[in-house]
Amino acid sequence: MQFVLYGTDCCQLCDEALELVERALEGKDYQLEMTDISQSDELMNKYAYSIPVLKCLNSERALNWPFAEEEILAFTLSMNR
Q1: How far is the C-alpha of 8 from the C-alpha of 22, rounded, in Å?
Q2: Which of 3, 33, 62, 76 is the most buried (most CB within 10 A)?
Q3: How far is the C-alpha of 79 from the C-alpha of 19, rounded, in Å?
Q4: In terms of DSSP bridges, do strands 31-36 and 53-56 run parallel, antiparallel, or are they unpaired?
Q5: Torsion of CA 6, 48, 74, 35, to 10 degrees
């Protein structure tokens, strides 16, 4: 599965979200791309008030902050259905 984690540099919540995603998906086959929304007006307009956001590129579904490891696992499992 391919994911994008939308956030910004120097965002403590984004750093925490990255750690949660990496722990939750450890040992699973996935690709994770970090995208800094401050580099795009379109992304800023879409995500400025909801980062960090984990988006699955395979399904276009997104998981908005706040989320925990359990929610990440449930989110990824729902992609396999």
Answers
A1: 17
A2: 3
A3: 21
A4: unpaired
A5: 0
